[in-house]
Amino acid sequence: MRILFPAAPGYGLMLPLVPLVWAARAAGHEVLVATTAHMVKIAAVSGLPVVDVFPQRDVGEDLVGQDDGDRSGEVPEGYWELARAMRPFELFTLAMTEGTVAAGRGFRADLVVYCSDHQAGKLAAVALGVPALEVGNRISWSLRDPEMRQGAGHNARMGVQPDDAPVVRMLRDRLGLGDGGPDLLGRVDPRAPSLGGLAGEEPDELDGVPWLPMRYVPFNGGAALPDWALRRPTRQRICLTLGTVAPLLPGGTGTLKQLVDALAAMDVEVVLADDETDLSLLEPLPTNLTPAGFVPLTAFLGDCSLVVHHGGSGTTAAALHYGIPQLVVPSGADNDLCARRVVDRGVGLSVAPAELNADAVRAAAERLLSEESFRRAAAEVRAEMSHQPAPAALLESVVARLDR
């Protein structure tokens, strides 16, 4: 079988798909990732065949304004308006849909596997006339949640675009797709049951399409590991990260400095996983901090006692996978929702950016390192996740359904 995996150009938007792509390839299927911008290289170094479906521009840099003075390359009408308005998911749909359809045709795809927040993948499945699997790539929300199927303004911020959204409607008209959706074999919810995921064996459907559970297997890329990552720490280790987007946003460096200063006074080892920030802006660096640059979280998270982060869905899910308490300082997108899930489940605490100061961060970190309830709750969620079907098992069941 030939399986097309369309993916939006963001670490937290594409990387959750990688274990499923690996599972498909290991099962003997032909696979192709369809993405753009910096994720083309990331997919390639992840060992996956990939095609750039929008080589004209780097949509990521256009969103953060790093190429503000350069408007070379042919772009669809409305592209720059969406970029300047910081409406990334609509921009991805506008820029990537036609290239994804062309890639799927050239690849002769038999199945399309796309994420719930990537309309370009959904539209490609319709245009290609092949079955599809929709995959939730967030630990914070799923379209199983009634509130995510209602309220367009809130959902657009999360990446959920209704079929009658202007950009979607325009592309449907241009491609002659009508109003129908793809032939869905299932929708995947990767959340643990106590975080809103599927519990038990009772069937659950939306519009006649079954929901399928799947274990969230974290993938953060690969790198040559430093010696310290292979040694068990001699004191409690804290992972500090703001992900790949937050450091580039206004206030990102200031937030990071406040967190570094707060943890500097504690008797802990702090690993700063950050490849975006100019660390000279944080000097002098405290003696208990290791500036790690880019190191996959999966390489050392298992030896950490706490993760302090921005509330990104991938980071939140990775900490849950390893059963580690979390301190979340949410920075935007679905980060607030991730923080709420963490606090409500008892696996961590949250400090609002408006209330951020060294005393608040230090007090929260000390609670998380000393109070057993957080470690116990995190271990419970880890156990839940370990009993969910692995990506390989999920894929096998979907292919079997297709063969019936």
Word description of this protein:
The protein is an alpha/beta fold. Helix content is 38%, strand content 15%. The chain is built from 15 helices and 14 strands. It has an 8-stranded mixed beta sheet, sandwiched between helices. A 6-stranded parallel beta sheet has the order 11-10-9-12-13-14, sandwiched between helices. Helix 12 links the parallel strand 13 and strand 14 (348-350). Helix 10 (252-264) crosses helix 13 (358-370). The longest helix is centred in the first third of the chain and has 20 residues, at 88-107. The radius of gyration is 21 Å and the shape is globular. The two termini are 15 Å apart.
Principal-axis shape = globular
Number of helices: 15
Main beta-sheet strand count, sense and barrel state: 8 strands, mixed
Overall number of strands: 14
| Radius of gyration from the alpha-carbon trace, in angstroms | 21 Å
- The percentage of residues in β strands lies in 5-15%
Q: Spell the H/E element sequence.
A: EHHEHEHHHEHEHHEEEEHEEEHEHEHHH
Q: Return the average pLDDT rounded to an integer.
A: 90
Coarse structural class: alpha/beta
Summarize this, please?
By secondary structure, this protein is α/β, with parallel strands linked by helices.
